[in-house]
Amino acid sequence: QAPATIALDGDHLEIEGLALLLERFDPAENQLLKAGALSLKGVFSPSVPSLLQLELAGLDLRAIDTWNQQEAGLPAGRADLQARFAGTLAAPDLEAGLEISTEELGKIAGRFRGGSQEGDLQLEWLALSGDSLQLNVRLPWDLEGGLAHWERGQLQARSSGFSLLPLLDQLPELERLDG
């Protein structure tokens, strides 16, 4: 594989072939284990249209706990993320896709699209039991001003029924939930 190149010319940054293999330390095996891969490529400039692409493939969720120096909090599983920034800072076109698969909680899939005036997020959680929960979120914002208009945001949640039992290991407080 060719080496990565990163070039800065004035306010123009170009990244090609940047790829990192991620690892996490497993104390039970006393060794480093593969934890996924990260790649970044594209061109960024605050003054002209840009295109940056980020990919996170096969991220071991337990690595996040290791990197944060936390006790085990996330379930075993893998995540994949693809994100793209196109356009300019004043008129961006943002897009991201996320897929998470866990042995305990099932699968979560999401899509995000955003521009200079709002962002839309769609998430679906499919539990191992077959239950599902869908969330749709729309949030207006002013990116140039750095303001989110929370009062005009919308949240829609749909489910045909969702068992909370798989979450008891992660959130023991749910045992006291009634109704």
Defining key terms:
mainly beta, 11 strands
* Arithmetic mean of pLDDT: 88
Number of helical segments with 4 or more residues: 1
Helix content bin: under 10%
Shape: flat
What are the segments in which pLDDT stays under 50 over at least 5 consecutive residues? none
Number of strands: 11
Strand pairing plus helix content: what structural class? mainly beta
Rg measurement, Å:
20 Å
How would you describe the overall organization of this protein?
The chain is mainly β and 179 residues long. Helix content is 4%, strand content 58%. The chain has one helix spanning 61-67, and strands at residues 5-9, 12-26, 31-44, 50-60, 77-87, 92-102, 106-114, 118-126, 132-142, 147-148, 154-159. Strands 1, 2, 3, 4, 5, 6, 7, 8, 9, 10 and 11 form an eleven-stranded antiparallel beta sheet that branches. Strand 9 (132-142) and strand 10 form a beta hairpin. The longest helix is centred in the middle third of the chain and has 7 residues, at 61-67. It is flat and about 55 Å long.
